[in-house]
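User: Teach me something about this protein's shape.
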Amino acid sequence: MSTPVQPDSPHPSGVEPTNSGAGDYPMPSSQPMLMRGVRWGIIATVAAMIVFAVIGFLVSDSRGLLGGLIGAAIGGAMLLATVGSIAFGNRFVRHPMYLQVFMGIVLGTWVLKLVGFVVAALLLRDQPWLDPKILFISLVATILVSIIIDVVIVAKARVPYDTELP
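Assistant: First, the predicted structure itself:
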């Protein structure tokens, strides 16, 4: 049985030293891409809330305004929760159980998103003060915009990678 060969680089694969955040530890090279996703997600959420509030108000007065605001806010919160949990999980890169901590944070956030969505859907389903059609349309449109943002950011990212060849 042979002993594993140690890599020449002092940094783990896919991790470059940066001084992002509090402390001096290496952050994964994808961290700037994730922070760009958070920034564009906030911009898209605020824009969607404004657009769908106006559209909702024009379609069904205050009921539509509230439906547009709430739908866009829920869609934006889902985007920001996912990207934010990944960016936050990267802060534990030096922890000996990094992968377990990272996956616990990300998967825990997904479970909380699912539970939150179901609770919100049950609480908002028959409310007389909001237009459910505008709520649904703004929610779906905001989620589609967030998917488009994710695709564009990942497609334009220049994340270094290396592979180990046999």
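Now, about its shape. The two ends are 17 Å apart (CA to CA). The chain has three helices and two strands. If you'd like, I can walk through any region in more detail.
User: That's plenty for now, thanks!
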